[in-house]
Design a protein that fits this description.
142 residues, mainly alpha, 0% strand
Length: 142
Amino acid sequence: MTAHPILQPALWLILWSIIMLMWMAITRFSAIGKAGVDLSNAPPGGRGQDLEGVLPASVNWKAHNYTHLMEQPTLFYALCGIVAITNLDNPLLVQLAWAYTALRVVHSIWQATVNKVPIRFGIFVISTICLAAMAVITALEI
């Protein structure tokens, strides 16, 4: 059995999210050590957000992006699942899915390194347009 082609960009975005998780963890643990933060003394219920203002902003950018990858892309994964389950055969949906995935990777790299908001927001808007187009096309075809 061959998997629906729309599952490939979804899988690659999942893999990218795992890469961002590792990048965030490596960056944070290194910065935590440099900042002299002793995690063994952290109060119960502490969260990564508590490191805002403690660690440099550029370190926290990776965490911000990882959070973003757990937000809107969940709609993308659900939509890809709907397309695959219903076996919609529309090459444009697959192209839009690849565009969405590529734009989210570019967004991640930009936010984690440069993080100039106007550019970041533009990348986000274009990726959202891809997602919205996918949703509309899918709704019209189901």
